[in-house]
TrEMBL record:
Protein name listed in UniProt: EmrB/QacA subfamily drug resistance transporter
This protein's record includes keyword Cell membrane: yes
Cross-referenced InterPro entries: EmrB-like, MFS, MFS_dom, MFS_trans_sf, Sugar_transporter_CS
GO molecular function, one term: transmembrane transporter activity
Similarity annotation: Belongs to the major facilitator superfamily. EmrB family.
Native species: Halomonas organivorans
Subcellular localization, as worded in the UniProt entry: Cell membrane
A single GO cellular-component term on record: plasma membrane
Membrane topology: Multi-pass membrane protein
Superkingdom of origin: Bacteria
């Protein structure tokens, strides 16, 4: 049963502190790439592992959260993740080599892989179904405000201090999150007899790791033909296919794939994947547009993203309340329409466009993001049986990361191929870049159009939810203590 509202607020604050710590650290560290290259005399490829290993480690750890939460309790695993992130921050701050920093980021990624899927699960357990939208909206505020302030804080620390300060700044938030977590997060009974699905773990870990690793190394069409990309990509996809077949036969699967029989959850995952392509596609395309086509600097580019993050963080709590009170398809649909409008606006930019207009389109995109992105996932999971939320959140996160990685690769290849062809025809680089990005933004707007009927179907599905029956033989078998 959900906790009392007062205690629910304390649980929410405890989870927010941990989530804010992870998001703030990632957004601030992105600014340190050039500094780390100069400090350790390393190449951009070597330093990129500071970001890449975090993402791979997080993707490989997420599948474990459902099992670990059932086996040892959500509170214990979440706090273990927060301790791990704190340890990774201390290791990064004391590192004397690039290898030490990369190792610290790997540890942080594993910790984040435990924390992020359990965040919504802990919040949902503290609120009744009709209040979960509001609670997740507040959680979304922290998720989106951290990337807004992170680059500014990181840039200031790099200006007045040392790159080690980017790791040290996490520690007060992590320590406060631990203090609140031990005091307010409820202790749960652990299922000590839960069996570990070793074949499923090996397959999903190898599959996610290999696919994310190979996709992170693709920038041009030629890269797809290289053996060090093609072989791990093929092996990873094969492992994922085998994982699905293995889990469907397992009595105690690592991930309960029968959750996809819940129509609302299934639609929410598809919507989340499509919106992730739009989200990360803009993160790729907007800097290319502003710096390559318009010749603007990194600071100006960063300020436009600040407009997006601030608008999204302000809109998210409002959207959370709306999906609790009204049919959710209206809020999500309006958010998607706003997103589509902003993408069409970005596609019409020219070299003569004032910077404030770009910022306005990006701020509008933030409003659409806050109204549709997180609410889609919340709506799909809020009516699931509470013990399944951790696994549902993990599968949602993994699917989004795979989809966004594929989307970034597709957009990168399109941009590179189109620009090269235009340069071969004698077109200048700014003009070639502008033409390629114009069509890429329109393609993202087309994806938004595809999302609209899905959002309507999602709202209809959760209005009359088809819950996974507790007596479903497959579900019971999947949960049966061994």
């Amino acid at each position: 049963m959900p906790n009392a509202p007062g205690h629910g607020g304390k649980v929410l604050i405890s989870v927010l502190l941990g989530t804010f710590t992870v998001s703030l650290n990632n957004s601030a560290l992105n600014l340190a790439v050039a500094t780390l290259m100069a400090t350790f005399e390393a190449s951009a490829t070597e330093v990129s592992w500071v970001v890449t290993l975090f993402m791979i480690a997080m993707g490989m750890t997420m599948p474990l959260t459902g099992y670990l939460a059932d086996r040892f309790g959500r509170r214990r695993i979440y706090l273990l993740g927060l301790w791990g992130f704190l340890a990774g921050s201390a290791l990064g701050a004391s590192a004397h080599s690039l290898a030490g920093i990369i190792l610290a980021r790997g540890l942080q990624g594993m910790a984040a892989g435990l924390m992020i899927p359990l965040s919504l699960s802990l919040i949902f357990s503290a609120y009744p179904s009709d209040q979960r939208g509001r609670a997740s909206g507040v959680w979304g505020f922290a998720v989106m405000i951290a990337p807004a302030v992170g680059p500014s804080v990181g840039g200031l620390l790099l200006e007045v201090s040392h790159w080690r300060a980017l790791f040290l700044m996490n520690m007060p938030f992590a320590l406060l999150g631990l203090a609140c977590g031990y005091r307010y997060l409820p202790v749960e009974a652990a299922n000590r007899r839960r069996r570990f699905d070793l074949p499923g773990f090996v397959l999903i870990t190898l599959g996610m790791g290999a696919v994310l690793f190979s996709l992170s190394r693709v920038e041009t069409l030629a890269d797809l033909g290289r053996a060090n990309v093609l072989l791990p990509l093929a092996a990873g996809l094969l492992a994922l296919v085998m994982f699905v077949r293995t889990e469907r036969r397992a009595l105690t699967p690592l991930l309960d794939l029968t959750l996809f029989t819940h129509r609302g959850y299934r639609l929410s995952v598809v919507l989340a994947c499509l919106q992730s392509i739009i989200l990360f596609g803009c993160i790729l395309l907007v800097p290319l547009w502003m710096q390559n086509a318009l010749g603007l600097g990194p600071l100006t580019t960063g300020l436009t993203f600040l407009a997006t993050a601030l608008a999204a963080s302000c809109c998210s709590p409002v959207a959370g309340r709306l999906i609790d009170r009204y049919p959710p398809q209206w809020c999500i649909g309006v958010g998607l329409l706003i997103t589509m409008t902003s993408l069409i606006g970005l596609a019409t930019l020219t070299a003569a466009t004032p910077v404030w207009v770009i910022g306005a389109w990006m701020g509008l995109r933030g409003l659409g993001l806050g109204g549709a992105y997180l609410p889609s996932s919340t709506v799909g999971m809020r009516d699931l049986p509470e013990p399944n939320v951790a696994q549902a959140s993990a599968m949602n996160n993994m699917a989004r990361r795979l989809a966004s990685s594929l989307g970034i690769v597709a957009l990168s290849i399109y941009y590179d191929t189109t620009v090269r062809a235009a340069l071969g025809q004698g077109i200048t680089y700014p003009e070639a870049s502008a033409a390629a990005l114009h069509h890429a933004f329109l393609a993202l707007a087309a994806i938004t159009v595809i999302c609209l009927p899905l959002a309507w179907r999602l709202g209809r599905a959760v209005t009359a939810p088809a819950r996974v029956p507790e007596h479903d033989p497959k579900t019971v078998a999947a949960r049966r203590p061994q």
